[in-house]
Amino acid sequence: MGESKPEPKPDKKRVTLRDVAEEAGVSLKTASNVINHSGRMTDSTREKVQEVIDRLGYRVNVSARNLNRGKTGFITLAVPTLTAPYLSELANRVIDAARGYGYSVYVTTYAEGSAQGAQSLLRNFNTTVSDGMILSISEVENLEAADLDVDYPLVCVGARSTHGKADHVTPDDIQEARLAAEYLFDHGATRLAVVGSRTEPEHIDSVREAVEGNAQLRLRGVLEACAARGAAFDSRLVMSTGQDWTIGSGARITQQLIDSGIPFDGIVAFNDQLALGALFTLAANGISVPEQMQVIGFDNIEEAAYFQPPLTTMDSCLDWIAPTAVSRILDRIDGTRVLEPSYITTQSHVIARATTRV
């Protein structure tokens, strides 16, 4: 005889907000206010409704709620690449920050400096699938004010100008680099080399008035620190990496600096990958760190703490950038108050490890 099986039970009826209101003996409006943490009512009423919500297992229908509000419940994060550790970490932190507000994040990349770059992305943004955009502006994008003058919520991160057309959330790169160089001086360095410049040595003076670009602003900060300390700065110790800020580029440039024969005892590398490449080359040449050479990077990527020796670096401020950008974009999506485009900044700090002296 075949084994008998129980008949499948019908699907459990979805609990609605009306069910919650009827069970709690309150109006639909009151039940909705408890769900949305809004409205005025006594604590006992709020607690009674919440008890019913928990007991019945009511779950908010997010899609329906967003539809009623005229919102999608999504924001877009656009970055030039997810290969760079800094940008992948930015994406993770933006997703986490948005989740705290009940929002989801579409992450997309764009082709830097091409017809399919940030300009195209801004021009073709689809507001039916996303409520606004957080844009990480690539160093090779040349966005004009008109490109950023859009009719949807936009917040930009990175070191490129937004021409006063969009909110700009960024650390102070000049202060950050000045602090990095001063830290090396304070710990015994006397002559600094730079790894990560995108400016040829003969054009270094033009950087003293730089107002945008990670590499330009950081080089300006180093120059200002040298001037403030009365330390000589040899432009021959600045060799351009172009747009290549990888470990391999840091290793190659550091070898060129060593081969030049020009003395130096400190390296300011404009990101941690460049700094790790520099450390590789220094070890290959038998140059001890930090006894003979001190090195500082930027961004505090995960690998920095576990390299040998562990890398002294500047904090990325991502724990500030991501929630600040998300909060700002959601304020703009909400639209209940007029917000002028703002420059929103903070200051970084040194994370001291073993590539600098105590």
From TrEMBL:
Mind telling me which CDD domains this protein's record contains?
Answer: HTH_LacI, PBP1_LacI_sugar_binding-like
Q: Which GO terms describe its molecular function?
A: DNA-binding transcription factor activity; transcription cis-regulatory region binding
Tagged with keyword Nuclease: no
Judging by the UniProt lineage, the source's domain of life is: Bacteria
What high-level taxonomic lineage is stated for the organism?
Answer: Bacteria, Bacillati, Actinomycetota, Actinomycetes, Bifidobacteriales
Q: What is this protein called in UniProt?
A: HTH-type transcriptional regulator DegA
Q: Which residues form the HTH lacI-type domain?
A: 15-69
- What SUPFAM superfamilies does the entry give? lambda repressor-like DNA-binding domains, Periplasmic binding protein-like I
Q: Which UniProt keywords apply?
A: DNA-binding, Transcription, Transcription regulation
Annotated organism of origin: Bifidobacterium pseudocatenulatum
